[in-house]
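Instructor's aside before we start: the two examples that follow are unrelated to each other. I chose them only because their records fit on one page, so don't look for a connection. First example below.
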Amino acid sequence: MKVITKIILFIIIFSLAFWLLRILDHGKLIIAELRDLGGIPWLYSAIGLIFSILAAFTIQKEWEHWNELVESIKEELDALREVWLRSRYLTKDTEGKVLECIKNYLSLIQEEWPIMEQGKRSEAGEKILDLLRNVIVRSTEETGKLSLLPLFNELIRNRNRRLYQCGSHIPYILKNTLTFAGILFIFLSLFIGVRNPWIDYIFTVSIGVLAFTIYIVIDDLDNPFRPGAWHLSPKEYQILFDGIKNDGTIK
């Protein structure tokens, strides 16, 4: 579901709750003089402050996590692309073996993309990389050239980074606390009323939408492989796979 659709549904539900509470008892349940509220506004402000601090630190951490994941994927692809290009300078037999391993590895990543957020290592992926390692090491021993070995090490390093970042999520206790604080903040905003119902509605729904949008941002950043406002797809891996397939080097 798109973000705008989620927000529209939230506004509809929130608006129904808002006007229902205002209709009850002709608004006497909600509308009160400021001097009669005592310390309630300060308590509500404290809840808002707690929610804001939690959200700010969480978004900052999740944004760093997102950038690390994107960077690891980009550098993994760069290493694979460079291995592919440099393999042209090897013997035809070795070149064919290297490209076959790369193609199998790229195909495997696309197949396993939906479950990648678990951060688990694939046995099939390890076997493909072992084959590629053997081909590169033997090629290095035969030619005395080390051009592919550093690239392979770079590939492994970024693959490990990607797997680590894929399995890294917000701790459950923090996410549950943030969710509870957000719900509390939105729910209690319904009970802060002013005399003018339309001004009351505009400010109250704005608070609710803002808190809900912040939660959506955090949830999307914490689940980068789930369709949402921010999500990663295997598109770049497919582009590289097609480039190798259409290169004409493998008959």
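Example two begins here.
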Amino acid sequence: MSLNNTFYSNYKLISTKITKANIMSKTISNNFSVNNKFNQVYQYNRFFFKVNNKYSKTAKLNKSNSNSVNIQKGLSNLNSFYKNNKKPISLCLDSELKNINNCNINNVNNINNNNDDNNNNMNSFNHISFPRTMDDINLIGRQTILHESNKLEADHPGFNDPNYRKRRNEIGQISRGWEMTQPLPYVKYTQEENNVWSIMWNILMPYYEKYACIEFLQNFEILKKELKFNGKEIPQIRNITDFLEKRTGFIFRPVDGYLSPREFLNSLAFKVFSSTQYIRHHSNPHYTPEPDLIHEFLGHTAMFIDQDFCDFSQEVGLASIGVSDEEIEKLAAIYMFTVEFGLCLENNKRKIYGAGIISCPNEVEWCMLDKPGKSGNMPTFHDFDLEEMIKTPYFITELQKHFFITPSIKNMKEEVIKYTNSIKRPFKAKFNKDTRQIII
């Protein structure tokens, strides 16, 4: 069969061949490890093999004159997998591998431990896992949520409140049960939840007027006018998504807590922002140890109206497709010091565009200090230097010790694109906006 992009992104065809096997090996150097868990979160993984032009005893590629590829030897663990599970197996190669374009897989045979030490044309491969279609996005976070609704940390204000935990789980189930092809869920928020929203709205609005960047302020006015954002009622994620998708192509996908950095960034490549729908505990509206809808809706939504910001966000997402764990850590740091805790300059004054700052009064006051506060401390401010940024630790549940200041949102976008273009990787991912698929 032809391994073109249409085949590669056809989930049904692939799943019938591999029976939704979860093949998690990062490298094929001495073995091909298989984890035979079915229908789990890594169901979206694709098989991608990078040709390194290096010798390997376990995987042999023979390229014939007819431009076909046979995987002939090695991969012994696949043989064991087949014997144990009695399932058909097929391997998929990307059609745009360097020097192996438009290839066909004729067969997969002789899967055993035989090695051919005499063939110098053998190649080694790296296995890279990433979503390719919007169907794959459905599977992100299903089993890798780091803070599930029924497993709140002890420092969470709602930890000892069974009613809050039950309510969190109810909203979490709405998120977990939603598929990308369905209408976005509607959540009927309680009066207590709307009261928490009102408290934080009234606290944050003066901070917005004084410290938010011009892009944030202008866009927040649009939200109030077009989406009727107000201090009395929590907006619905479906209305936010409908509005943003028409303006910038981004959508908010409901999730039930923290995703892994790779999953969260991979989603951005599809113009999908993973958003919670629950709200912080009423006993302490000023504080939450995790993202909640106040952080998402009041902190993030306005900037997703800005096209430069959206382009930047998607660029970070595309750069995360198929890269190493080390690169994911660097991209996560860039995301945290920009989207979450970003500062910019306006008329030589610090202004806020980061959602983690603008949705937290304590963080706003902290990042605006010009001299040490009551604690005798103050943060360190840096010029926008990505090389320094990726080496700097960031904090999720503490005040940030470092902030990076960009001259403008546009400048930030340009600098990040330069950085992502410099990342060494076997391919470059592109997003087809018509089919909403990742093209390699």
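The CA atoms of residues 3 and 381 lie 50 Å apart.
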